Amino acid sequence: MRIDTIAPAEGARTSEKRLGRGIGSGLGKTSGKGHKGQWARSGGGVRPGFEGGQMPLARRIPKRGFNNRFRKEYVIVNLASLADLPAGTVVDYGFVLSNGLAKDVKNNAGLKVLGSGELTAALTVRASKFSATAKEGIEKAGGTAETV
Length: 148
Fold this sequence. Notes:
The protein is of the alpha/beta class. It is built from four helices and six strands, in the order αβαβαβββαβ. The chain has helices at 57-60, 79-82, 93-98, 132-140; strands spanning 73-78, 90-91, 108-114, 124-127, 129-130, 144-147. It has a three-stranded parallel sheet with strand order 1-3-5. The two termini are 51 Å apart.
């Protein structure tokens, strides 16, 4: 294959509509815009969301709450998901994601460990945050909870 032979797949590219080129084209005279009116004019039409002067839906519905665009979300993992790991394992953000123990989130600020479940093996857990019960559970099993 040569670079000069590369072409789009058959049927992937269609030619543009040639408007106003006679009755035989099917798009002559009014060029598919019908007769007169707002939509037939150059630059005609209304902006998205315009309802003809009626109060728009976006303004009729009450607004509630606040979403902070800059919030930090943590990748959350419970002790129950770490219970099956062998003793001596180092659990950190990369380990949790690569082993599918938790899903990644947007704007993530690191790993947070919560204390739901029982831990039996001594693990080294490195996370941004720990709940009090998670820290207690890790240390009770003989492991260490390191804040990074």
